[in-house]
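Morning F.,

Quick status update on the modeling queue. The single chain you submitted on Monday has been processed. Sequence for confirmation:
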Amino acid sequence: MTSAKVEKGPEEPPAAAADTTSAEGYQRALGARQIQMIAIGGAIGTGLFLGAGKAIAKAGPSLILAYAIAGLVIFFIMRALGELLMYRPVAGSFSEYAREFVGPFAGFVTGWTYWLFWVVTGITEVTAAAQYMTFWFAIPQWVSALIFTVILYGVNLISVKLFGELEFWFSMVKVTAIVGMILICAGILTLGFSDAGDTASVTHLWADGGFFPHGIKGTLMTLQIVMFAFLAVELVGVTAGESKDPKTVLPKAINTVPWRIAVFYIGALVMILSVVPWTAFSPDVSPFVAAFQKMGLGLGAGIVNFVVLTAALSSCNSGMYSTGRMLRDLALNGQGPKVFTRLTRSGTPLVGTTVSAALMLVGVWINYQWPGDAFTYVVSFATISGMWAWIMILVSQLRYRRLADRGVLPQSSFRAPGAPYTSVFALAFLGLVIVMMGIDKDTRISLYCAPLWALILGVSYLVLKARNPADKAFTGR
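Structure tokens below.
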């Protein structure tokens, strides 16, 4: 498949609509303000608000270093994605790039795997949101889950602009909460107010068992938790086909990754662990909730519950958005049912979003019926499937850069600094994370699920190829 064909598409829009309609038929309705907040919100989720408690118990203050190194790797991944996006901004994003630079099967696997990642994530997040509602209201969880799913489904079908606006405010709540926590902790450290004022000190970062209380191994064992917290940061790439000015907006959003991680992850953890010793945190309790309780701020639990509810709904909202686009991209390239190509009048993928939302509801029912280990094992697959998208981004960028440097393809206007070395380093780091997932018995199950999913995709691909041997979806570029 050549880039020229993709840019024009089978039905090129008239010149008058060229600025508002993408080649795939989507409406370019996402502005700079929305793209920036989608990018910020993608890096802040329940992995930080809730998952950090378990990571602190395993690594202590050295978790800060784990987030810093992982954050650098995420920046390398995002710059690799940015280079590809400026070469050819498309809604299929990394699935499309995997198809072009690695092969049709890679695009097939990436598209369906990323779709499954968001379906599974959507199931867990809408279920979590329903659980958070019980903090205030004594209503059945399935009722809340149904209401949230229907509302978010409607938002995603009405228009992409409404999705972007809702995601903007979801992200604003998360950002405000973290900044507020940082300011409160800074005030306690400097002014000494609240119940934690007498004991708050930056010496907690190294005085309670050292910076590496469980050794380097303890820090390495948190890498999978840390990377899970960063999943969805790549979502900004999926918005390329619906951004008003992708050539300007997307590079700015990607370049904010370092300071986002520095403030929202490293900054927040430094402050929390300075005010409250890491030994006081429980792996089963959000460090934000625990910190508020130690400070004697009674409203803390309610505030954090509202924030994590927002984070869960934001993730589910993003899931519905991306699943519909991924299914439509697969269908447009002959690697999925043609029915998924249908758009509403406002330019949203009707069938793909509907099917994905329905599966999320089925998942909620399954979780209600069998809330034990079987469902947990399925959920653990989300991490490895999300990392597959990152791997494909890096491999695609390496192959694109090789072709661009040889003059076969045009150079991107947003080249990744340090590539190809930074991309190779990021791939090696992801390999290390996968190894650590295999060592940890709590996450090892995800590596068992991956071959099964690969087998399903492999058989499906061969069946489709046998039925359509001459189709461009299976013959390569």
